[in-house]
Specification:
A hairpin with a 6-residue loop joins strand 25 and strand 26. The chain starts with 19 loop residues before the first strand and ends with a strand. The strands form ten sheets. It has a 22-stranded antiparallel barrel. A five-stranded mixed β-sheet has the order 8-13-14-11-12. A three-stranded mixed β-sheet has the order 2-5-4, with helices on one face. The protein is built from seven helices and 44 strands. The protein is mostly beta strands. It is globular, with a radius of gyration of 27 Å. Helix 1 packs antiparallel against helix 2.
Amino acid sequence: MLGGIALACLAGRADAADSRLRLSIPVRSYADALIDLGLQANISILGTSTCGAGGRVQLSGSYTLEQALDRILNDAPCRYRIVDARTVRIIPMLPREPAAAPREPVRTQTVISELVVTATKRPAALGRLPAGVSVLSRGRIDSTRAVDPGLTTGQLAGVLTTNLGPGRDKLLIRGLSDGAFTGRTRSTVSTYLDDTPINYNAPDPDLRFVDVDRIEVVRGPQGALYGSGAIAGIFRIVTAKPDPERFAAGASATVATTRGGDASHELDGYVNIPLVKDRAAIRIAAYEDVQGGYLDDVNLRLANVDQTRRDGGRVALNLKLSDDWRFEATAATQHLRSNDTQYVTPDNVNGMRSNRVREAHNNDFSFVSAKIAGDFEWGSVSSTLSYVHHVFSSQYDASAVFQVTGAFPTREADLGAFVEATRSNMLVQDLVVRSAGASRLSWLVGLYAARTLEHSPSELTIPQAGRQATLYTERRKDVLTELALYGEAGYALGGGWTASLGGRVFQSRVRTTADLEISAPYSPRNFARSETFDGFSPKISLQRELANGDLIYGLITEGYRPGGFNSSGFFAINTARETFRPDRLRNYEVGAKIRRLDNRLTLRATAYYDDWSNIQSDRYRQSGLSYTANVSDARILGLEAELGYEWSWGFGIQLNGLLASSRTRNVNPAFNAPITKDLPGVPQTSGGVLAVYQRDLPDDLSLRLVGEAAYIGRSDLSFDQSLPREMGHFVRVRLSAEVARDAWRLAAFVNNPFDDESDTFAYGNPFTFDRVRQVTPQRPRTVGLRLAADF
């Protein structure tokens, strides 16, 4: 977000403009010095990029806020305006002869060095965090139309998703994959909406990014600060907050057509309404998104069966309770409906689909959160209480259960449908106490508690005597209780060196019950098990910030997931497979973050080594019913990098890439199949390139051209080497051209312009994927127009 920077206020007094601040800012450019000032004074500074990339200033001593700003901006091509006790806005210096002043090209927003992120639970400049961190700013999301997690891949090093379909996918980071299937294992990537985790073992809810301030990704295990489920990293959606200073609104409309498919459209908008000047505001966002189908089912004689509809909205309220206390509340909801899955079976007639049952998917997500925060001289405290309600269900053609396995031989059935559903309710409380940011010692302490209640009924039916007869029903209930005490402390050693030490003491209790009703020749049964898992997850880092602003660092972190139980199946569970154990991943990494040429060149690179033990993986029996197993251990060696450069004439480019080599070892003897040498579901090589060109046109118009390409290398679908299902090795391309004037923007775009049909995901139906080749091609060439405005 080169147009501005918004820093969370962690500490300091509300009357900072009058009180004196103890500041230590080394030699910086104007923009970087303002970033440091905001961090140390614990205020929000907006529009720092207005000052450009030049300047060399430093500050040390005790100053009022106005004195500090005056000294930093004494010779700068910009000035400041103090909006309130917590906010400063940077504005350009007015030229002496406005009519004669040439128009400067708008910078392309490909270099993101001034962004401040809070995914480490403490605001810090992106280039100064000792971790593999990437950010998509609001401007980048808008210019590339990366409006959901799947569309961010290619822009974020090492971030991939599976492609089962909207609302069914799982996020993968750094090649740390436990397999491509989604079942009982906890997600390896923890998805956050602001300060709240929103997934457990569910697929990613596929939230649409409307009125979102930024996307933050922290790569590598984050067990110390975020607990279980962050074994591969954090994917954090930071929403735009209500602004009590001014009214704002925006909207966009998109229409598109896909070759051989139905039309698509998208509508979204937001409004920000100040309720009490500088005290209270409300912000509302809403959207509707219909993606037309493009696959035909020759057996059902239906065209374009895979339409997806997604709609939702969000309401946020901000209140300034006093000079020291503030209150934030947010409610969000999304409803997603897919009429069918999106795979084809190339070996069947015409290489199209040939199902006898519509494989629909529903995914409903609701969220409410309340946060209260206070700032004091010594630091700050914040408490967030959140509730997440997530309901999703899928239907599959399960005829193979009867045709191949011989299940229920007394039935004369040739058609089956399997429906699985999950209703998850999660209550989360997170209390965080932080120190002020100006001293050499910084610290934070947190107390975390969560309770997840999950009901997951499933049933197998066949048509019989004019009605649906149920042959298999499982009513499962899981209760997970998590408690944790965590903290981190950092100390500036001098000479640019800083050391940090942190950790998390945790306890997780899992209780599972299930009632199974199964028709003859099988017998009904009940299941009940519980177990408690506890431990400690450490974090150690050492970093040095060089005099020129570069950063080098070393980091050791851990991630973990609790164990659980298997209950499904026609027969009683084998004792060896009834329980799956916790798994743990320890990460060692070194990295560098470099800025050169007046911040027009940025390079962030990390080398890492991971040791993953007792890997949990979701599996399928021959019947198509799932279970979870500890498959093996693995060692992963990787290198990730992001490189960006901006030219002064309006062109910018960003490259990213990941090279990851994994080797499985210590195979679980209970896993009765040959195992792949590499982790499945992720390629050894992936990367992306983003190019943006912007220039001014006559009549106050501006032009922006965007080209994006992402490469995903080859990978195997499963750990099971006896089921070779290779996928990947394709390039995804998106192009767009936008013309803007004042508040209005009109864009034309084309996705998959070369109409590539490569296999993005070799899986679609758990009952047939091991017998019939399944392929998920890219969506065919799609061309569209978008009209947007912000006021």
